[in-house]
Amino acid sequence: MNTLPARVVAAAGGVHAAIGTGDGAVSLPLSEAFEKFVGRDVVFGLRPECIAEPHRRFDEAHAPFVVEATVEMTEPTGSETIVLIRMGGEKALARVAPGYRVAVGDKARFAMDLSRACLFDPGSELLLV
Hints:
single chain; mainly beta
């Protein structure tokens, strides 16, 4: 599980998880179920299989959110490639198809299945949603 420090904020179009600050910050849209946590610091959780190549469709009900991130490492495993990315100043792992070619240092696009995002309390580490 990728775990990234974040803050839940109200933004145009709904509730978002703000990761990082300044020019490199990333704002990830969340479901309305997270609205009760607006203004709260949290740990944003998303599994590596929920971050993939930009054309990936995770399911028919949810369109993926596409984010640009810097590639820090790639590890081809045969059936997939594990990619270490940096977004909002934080590191996360992605699992992409072996044909999605990225190189260390590239800024690349990645699809995220945010319907499977979790929020954790940073103090107790308990699951909030």
